[in-house]
């Protein structure tokens, strides 16, 4: 076998491997499935198994398991945010789309979590994606504008500001132990700073997920098998995922 044939064979094998991996579409489907578990833990589970409490251990156990499993979605959506940022042709429009989705999801999320259609004490996890996006755009601008110590001082200040905003607004706080907004920001920053070093990036993200209640680390494992392809069969498919979470929450609130 000559060198040309060997090169063609390697290319064919690589192409087959990539097709078998997880495309953006497949990652979004997996993320949506985990996301649905979070909604179900506070809506369907109480309906089917009774209100979770110390007197109803079955309902409590199922609700907790669903909620904890849903945290696998955090690194997946953080990666999709970062990947979308670096490939979008219009970053301002991308940020506005996240803002609209977060705003649409707000009333239903508040209803499920607090019993009121509007409650300023809690905010849905999509706001965590939005704030992470704002920090990401700002950090990248600083990296292109400044250098040396000035760059890193401003960068750290921006990240700390993002963490504080997430904590003060109680974005995506779950079970009083999982601060989804803060974790999303941490994952996005890890992907941004380490994306040129695949193994280091995945190891760091996996370690971060493992420290934060184990299951986000499981979510990182799915990212290891991504193939970099979009995988959409129709151009409008991506818009379905934008409305999916608000629709899930609305159905849950009505239930």
UniProtKB/TrEMBL annotation:
Keywords per UniProt: Membrane, Transmembrane, Transmembrane helix
Entry keyword annotation includes Amino-acid biosynthesis: no
Where are the coiled-coil regions? none
Which residue ranges run through the membrane? Answer: 27-49, 61-82, 94-113, 125-143, 150-171, 177-194, 201-224, 236-254
Q: What is this protein called?
A: ABC transporter permease
Upper taxonomic classification of the species? Bacteria, Bacillati, Actinomycetota, Actinomycetes, Bifidobacteriales
């Amino acid at each position: 076998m000559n060198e040309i044939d060997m090169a063609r064979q390697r290319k064919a094998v690589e192409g087959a491997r990539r097709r078998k991996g997880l495309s953006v579409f497949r990652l979004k489907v997996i993320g949506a499935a985990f996301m649905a578990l979070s909604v179900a833990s506070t809506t369907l589970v109480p309906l089917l198994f009774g209100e979770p409490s110390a007197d109803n251990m079955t309902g409590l156990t199922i609700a907790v398991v669903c909620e904890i499993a849903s945290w696998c979605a955090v690194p997946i959506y953080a990666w999709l945010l970062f990947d979308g940022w670096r490939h979008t042709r219009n970053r301002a429009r991308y940020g506005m789309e996240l803002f609209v989705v977060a705003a649409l999801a707000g009333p239903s999320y508040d209803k499920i979590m607090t019993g009121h259609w509007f409650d300023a004490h809690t905010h849905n996890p999509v706001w965590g994606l939005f704030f992470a996006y704002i920090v990401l755009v700002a950090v990248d601008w600083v990296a292109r504008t400044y250098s040396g110590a000035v760059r890193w001082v401003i960068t750290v200040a921006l990240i700390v500001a993002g963490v504080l905003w997430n904590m003060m607004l109680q974005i995506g706080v779950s079970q009083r132990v999982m601060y989804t907004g803060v974790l999303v920001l941490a994952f996005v920053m890890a992907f941004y700073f380490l994306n040129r070093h695949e193994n280091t990036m995945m190891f760091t993200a996996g370690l971060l997920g493992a420290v934060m209640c184990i299951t986000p680390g499981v979510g990182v494992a799915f990212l290891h098998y991504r193939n970099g392809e979009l995988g959409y069969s129709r151009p409008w498919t991506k818009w379905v995922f934008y409305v999916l979470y608000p629709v899930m929450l609305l159905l849950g609130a009505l239930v």
